[in-house]
Amino acid sequence: METKWSKVIIHASAFFAPWLVPIIFFLISSEEEVKSISVQALLFQVVMIVLLTISGIFSFLLIGIPFLIVFGIMYFIAPIIGIVKALSDESWRYPIVGRWV
């Protein structure tokens, strides 16, 4: 039960402390699944910030606007999917970075 709520908190942290909570859970947890999810969540946040920044820069050339929209939606939808999957005790990996961990 602890693993389930730990995963929910890690996924939900994208909305209130996207970097701090995954780092804390990585350091204090002894379960490999929680550590894996926390690393994925942290990497996802870093990659999404980089992609949104690049898309924002390219939006001045009108090239980045579609990417900005897609990555912006993914930034909010992926953690919500993770929360739902964690509540139903299903395994789920973040898009883009899920295979890296």
From TrEMBL:
Q: Does the keyword Metal-binding apply?
A: no
Span-the-membrane segments of this chain are 6-29, 41-61, 67-87
Query: Mind telling me what this protein is named?
Result: DUF4870 domain-containing protein
The protein's superkingdom reads Bacteria
> Taxonomically, what lineage is the organism?
Bacteria, Bacillati, Bacillota, Bacilli, Bacillales
Give the chief site where it resides.
membrane
Could you list this entry's UniProt keywords, alphabetically sorted: Membrane, Transmembrane, Transmembrane helix
| One Pfam family recorded for the sequence | MamF_MmsF
Q: Where in the cell is it found?
A: Membrane
The way this protein sits in the membrane is described as: Multi-pass membrane protein
Taxonomic source organism? Lysinibacillus zambalensis
